[in-house]
Fold these 2 entries.
Entry 1:
Amino acid sequence: MTRSDFRVTLLGTGVPIPSPDRFGPCTLVEAGEQKFLIDAGRGATIRLHQLKIPIGRIDVQLLTHYHSDHTSGIPDVWLTGWLESHFGTRKTPYRVIGPTGARELMENLERAYALDIKIRAADEKLPLSGVATDIAEFDRDGVVYEKGGVKVIAFEVDHGDVIKPCYGYRFEYAGRVAVFSSDTRYNQNVIKYGAGADLLVHEVASARPELMKEAYVQRIIGHHTTPREAGRVFAQTKPKLAAFTHIVLVGSERIPPPTIDDVLTETRQTYTGPLAVGEDLMAFEVGETVTVRRHQPPLSGSNPAKVA
Ligand SMILES: [Zn+2]
Ligand SMILES: [Zn+2]
């Protein structure tokens, strides 16, 4: 298949569960020469390394919200990206753009890792410019980045009454659009900013009906979008391709979590268009059409890709 210069790669499609198959939430967006990370959950650096992309090569780190599963990889991207080895190499400040809270997060990380920074600067003679941070915060919908033909628009989503702030992102590049829901309940703003998307990457959460009477399950599902609701978002936005990431499958000791096939079946009740269930390192070329490429060999067993 043809490679476009606008590409989205799911580095982590998981949730807080420490799974070897689905790392923490993180998505790589490559547009022309520029590379962006949306969030950096557990294992983000490992996935970049698998793609042979130096960690220091990331131009902008975007943040959606401050749940730890979306940020626990930040110190790793920031500090490992500073190392001189081929997998690091950052010489310029780590640029972070996020909703209010980004500055507090990064300033506290700088305090937490002050001794490492001091030691490496003295011992390895690493340039302090490469571990400096350049932080921009925002508190409303709007353009948060524009350079080299890439426009990034943040839009507020609804992850729950006290889980604020939380934002999704819309990327516009070369006449193409990729939209990322972040963590959210069914939300009109995703539909508004998802309009005209070539690729719409959305979260999803599901539990079997038997489990839905449990209060903790209701709380989890209540912070997210069910497959049926996600289908309604896709049916209204009509992307060339819809894709799931951040796949929350809730089970208990007695009741197993739904399967990926269950998620697909339920989504199909409200949406019949093109749909991919994300896997770590699954890539989307956003060109005239949107095409899907799985990581070879597949990370988890030999199941055929769930692309329908
Ligand atoms: Zn969250
Ligand atoms: Zn999350």
Entry 2:
Amino acid sequence: MKKELKYLVIHCTATPQGREVTSDAIRAWHTAPYPKGRGWKQVGYTDLIHLDGTVERLVDNNEDAWVDDWEITNGAKGYNGVSRHIVYAGGLDKRKKPKDTRTEAQRKALAEYILNFHRKHPNVRIIGHGDIPGVNKACPSFNVPTFLKEIGINQ
Ligand SMILES: [Zn+2]
């Protein structure tokens, strides 16, 4: 049963600054059987923003205002049926502490992505993973409300 899209949730891959992350790696982390992976049916994110700003689609999406069952990704328990999750490669410094490691290209790609999305879905809230109530995570390692203001979105 499809549900109305309510959230765009932004994540980081929680990998060290400057390290590229492939879609195959994410697929393995999320869908390989435990303990190698998490044993999920689907990966956690719809789109992956690479270090060079390329946006790679991981899970099909028809871009409408509904979350179909085949579009669901496993980014945040309890929110997946009403959310789209996206991720940028990075989010940790070399010592594995949370850090906004977005390259200039990633910031630009993310801004473009969010602005496009917001034009299509003005009522969908855009949040960081750590902004979800009860989630105690630094993900995506930058302040999403501040970034939204920087790119001219007031929600
Ligand atoms: Zn996350």
